[in-house]
Amino acid sequence: WVGTDDGNVQLTRDGGKSWTNLSPRIEGLPKGAWVAQVNASLHDPAEAFVVVNNYRQNDWKPYLYHTDNYGKSWTSIVDEEVTSGHTLALAQDPEEENLLFLGAEDGLYVSIDKGSSWTKWQNFPSIPARDLVIHPREHDLVIGTFGRAAWILDDIRPLRDLASNGYEKVVGNDL
């Protein structure tokens, strides 16, 4: 998997001998947009997430796409109703495939259902979350920001539990 700064998403399945440009298959992908990240899933070789932003063309919408069939088809998994500002980074939890973290121009978002719904993380400032990585030993989310330093969301295991068991099963019926 590779993404470019002029809107291409490409895949090789033969060690780089040949490449397939998947961009025409991604409905809604702006022409010439910057493909900020392509994240291959650690859980399924056919699965990937593509983070795109188009602010250089004065388009501030969030773009995040998902495939589970080597790019034959794509689904948009974020929209302006959820985030305000363009998308910058994504991290899929290496242990719980449904747990996703999204870095955006206006902060950090979390999904416990593989991108079907997103929640803004309220204890993180409304600043650009430029890069995300999950520390495998400490179970922490490390967030690289723009101009503010690195932030650490300590111990994401409770979020893993929510993502694997479902909110209702973890909290019960007494909300």
Q: Mind explaining what this structure looks like?
A:
This protein is mostly beta strands and 175 residues long. The protein has 2 helices and 14 strands.
Which terms would index this structure?
14 strands, mainly beta, globular, 4-stranded antiparallel beta sheet
SSE topology sketch:
Elements: E1 2-3, E2 9-11, E3 20-21, E4 34-40, E5 48-54, E6 59-67, E7 75-76, E8 87-92, E9 100-104, E10 107-111, E11 119-120, E12 129-135, E13 140-145, E14 150-153, H1 157-165, H2 167-171
Antiparallel strand pairs: 1-2, 2-3, 4-5, 5-6, 6-7, 8-9, 9-10, 10-11, 12-13, 13-14
Q: Output the helix-strand order.
A: EEEEEEEEEEEEEEHH
Strand content: 35-45%
- Residues in helices, as a percent range: under 10%
Described by the principal axes of the CA atoms, the overall outline is: globular
Largest sheet: 4 strands, antiparallel
What distance separates the N and C termini? 42 Å
Question: Taking strands numbered 1, 2, ... along the chain, how are they ordered across the largest sheet?
Answer: 4-5-6-7
User: Could you report the average pLDDT, rounded to the nearest whole number?
Assistant: 92
